[in-house]
Amino acid sequence: MQVILAQPRGFCAGVVRAIEIVDRALVKYGAPVFVRHEIVHNKHVVDSLRRKGADFTESLDGIPAGAVTIFSAHGVPASVEADAVARQLRVIDATCPLVAKIHHQGRQYAASGRRVILIGHAGHPEVVGTLGQIPGDVILVQNEAEARTLDLAADTALAYVTQTTLSVDDTRAIIATLHRRFSNLIGPDTRDICYATQSRQSAVRELAKRVDVLLVVGATNSSNSNRLREIGAESGIPSYLLADGSELDPAWVLGARVLGVTAGASAPESTVEDVLAALRRLGPVELSTMEGREEYAEFRLPALLADPTPPASLPPPHDGARQAEHPAAPQTTQQLQPQQLQLED
């Protein structure tokens, strides 16, 4: 069986940064370090960090006052930040800088007097966080049908922002529908969809031209991984989402001459290797990697974690200001490889 790996695939700069924040916090402050929500949507990553002493929780209620607490890469509502202040938690913010940029952009639109539309999926942690970061009555639009039925005057002053992990094509269609309906609408087109999401989607579209079946390695609750599987299916090839090799169904690849493999932005390369091992148990594998875009993005760590040396005291309690540094765009200081972070087995 011929197997072609997508390029790029796997970890993005925001995921690498978030995982490293938890790792460095554990080294610097010791266990336990509390993390609100899964730091990224991948069980292998979460389980690895849990074994090192990270304590994952969906609520701040059970976190003792003064404890080191990390906000996940998806971001949190302003109400959670305020709750952390009230509880005197020592917060390190691992919100992806590209998500934080959307929070800032949405607040600017609201401050200018525009009603803000958020294009995204209801209930996704990033959407929950963004809705809670933009003041006023933000309108959530999930698809073209909802865009067509918005009950607003055609000349309403509107602006839109988007979830970072959406399908580029679907988002572009929603934006086009909004522009047809509303004359006073501004927004960033699809530029809010993160560079890693766009490049992985483009790679899958190209890969789909060459393969009979597509396997997407990622978690079922990973938005960007689900979009990759959907793009494969829309391209006309059987496409499957699996967390690792243990979830491979041999029937999926029966009779396939060429198989494509990619991975969502929160999937470690070790899970791709595990899928390849499962494929090799079914028969000989001829492996190659498609030509594709090299990624050089790297996001700065929060200043308080730049030096991993354990401090004489804990960081000060959260005062409402973000302690993470959020550049508006990726730095390009070193190449980012899927294997860059090694997780515990």
Question: Helix/strand/pairing class, anyone?
Answer: alpha/beta
Largest sheet: 5 strands, parallel
Q: Which fold name is given in CATH as the topology of the largest domain?
A: Cobalt-precorrin-4 Transmethylase, domain 1
Widest sheet, order of strands: 11-10-12-1-13
Q: How confident is the prediction overall: mean pLDDT? A: 90
Helix content: 25-40%
In DSSP terms (H or I, runs of 4 or more residues), the helix count works out at 11
Radius of gyration: 21 Å
Could you name the ranges where pLDDT drops below 50 across 5 or more consecutive residues?
A: 320-345
CATH class of the largest domain: Alpha Beta
How many beta-strand segments? 13
Total domain modules: 3
Strand content: 15-25%
CATH superfamily of the largest domain: 4-hydroxy-3-methylbut-2-enyl diphosphate reductase, catalytic domain
CATH architecture of the largest domain: 3-Layer(aba) Sandwich
Distance between the termini: 28 Å
